[in-house]
């Protein structure tokens, strides 16, 4: 199998790059290790409505996300934030009015962020996508890439002129071998880049009525007790069903060992915070990103407590001349880690590839 540009990773960065290359008329092939496209974006339907189990927001001043939503006619709406915030002390005591909705002013998409994944996937030739396909090894030199992949348990070889790795740098370091081998400084540079939100887990609770809104609450809650430490309204743009989601504060290793107990405590927490009507959710779902090896590596199991300073490490930039290009959201210098950063990274790589093509003519 042969292609000009091999894209590894079918998250937003990889899909956006595929979109750019399609419009440029370039030959490419995109590999995705999971059985679906989207990467860290995951939107699931419960009782007829779409809910984001991965990223859910973008913000004013992030023009690429806004432009994509407009291009695909996906309605944008503001995060619901009307009403009091609820605060839970370590003792379990609950107070109202202890702050404001922290995500007020952020934007969401009708149908969830997955609507962007679907829209981008629909405009690219499906023959360009290989899911259930994991990159194992890369032989690289200027103008020549040989990639060994595992496609559903079968080893395959793909030859390309360039390879764009739109997957987290730590995943590359842990799961891909290179010939010639990357030097110690380059491998360390990959390992040093935290995978944004990879150690996180989210709990979604879906209801037939917005009981918190009916009680004058925004759905925002902060808790020192847990298991959810931060909660927000996750309801669709209009109509029901309605939902709250919470970021889980329980360490990843403990989540695995005590999942059922944690979910029981989460349901009790919702009742304590928002009242007895929260006792019977239609759906109560956990999405644990730390449990997915193709996204989170062992060092990602400890959540990042503040937003890292992202951008392509200097030690890796020189590998472009050997056809190795890095393009996950963590490589974006301005919006690294965000959805906007994935689009920023894809745009940078598309412009670089276009310039290289022009100069080679």
UniProtKB/TrEMBL annotation:
Domain of life: Bacteria
Pfam families: Amino_oxidase
A single MF term (Gene Ontology): oxidoreductase activity
Domain Amine oxidase stretches: 12-89, 101-352
InterPro entries: Amino_oxidase, FAD/NAD-bd_sf, Flavin_MAO
Gene3D superfamilies named in the record: FAD/NAD(P)-binding domain
Stated family: Belongs to the flavin monoamine oxidase family.
Name of the protein in its database record: Monoamine oxidase
């Amino acid at each position: 199998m042969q292609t000009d540009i091999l894209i590894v990773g079918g998250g937003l960065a990889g899909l956006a790059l595929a979109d750019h290359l399609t419009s440029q008329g370039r030959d490419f092939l995109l590999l995705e290790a999971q059985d679906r496209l989207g990467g860290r974006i995951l939107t699931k339907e419960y009782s007829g409505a779409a809910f984001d189990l991965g990223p859910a927001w973008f913000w004013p001043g992030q023009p690429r996300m806004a432009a994509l939503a407009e291009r695909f006619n996906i309605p944008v709406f503001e995060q619901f934030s009307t009403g009091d915030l609820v605060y839970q002390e370590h003792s379990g005591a609950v107070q109202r009015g202890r702050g404001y909705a922290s995500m007020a002013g952020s934007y969401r998409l009708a149908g969830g962020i997955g609507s962007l994944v679907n829209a981008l996937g629909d405009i690219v030739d499906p023959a360009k996508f290989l899911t259930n396909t994991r990159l194992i090894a890369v032989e690289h030199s200027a103008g020549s890439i040989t990639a060994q992949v595992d496609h559903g348990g079968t080893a395959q070889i793909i030859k390309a002129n360039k390879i764009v790795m739109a997957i987290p740098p730590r995943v590359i370091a842990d799961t891909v071998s290179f010939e010639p081998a990357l030097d110690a400084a380059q491998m360390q540079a990959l390992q040093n880049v935290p995978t944004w939100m990879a150690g996180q887990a989210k709990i979604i609770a879906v209801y037939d009525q917005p009981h918190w809104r009916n009680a004058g609450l925004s759905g925002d809650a902060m808790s020192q007790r847990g298991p959810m430490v931060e909660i927000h309204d996750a309801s669709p743009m209009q109509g029901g069903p309605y939902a709250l989601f919470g970021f889980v504060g329980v360490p990843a290793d403990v989540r695995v060992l005590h999942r059922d107990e944690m979910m029981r405590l989460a349901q009790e927490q919702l009742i304590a915070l928002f009242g007895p009507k929260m006792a019977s959710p239609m759906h109560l779902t956990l999405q644990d990103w730390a449990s997915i090896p193709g996204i989170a590596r062992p060092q990602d199991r400890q959540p990042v407590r503040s937003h890292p300073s992202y951008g392509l490490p200097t030690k890796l930039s020189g590998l472009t001349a050997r056809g190795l290009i890095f393009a996950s959201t963590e490589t974006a210098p301005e919006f690294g880690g965000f959805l906007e950063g994935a689009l920023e990274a894809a745009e940078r790589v598309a412009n670089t590839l276009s310039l290289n093509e022009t100069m080679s003519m």
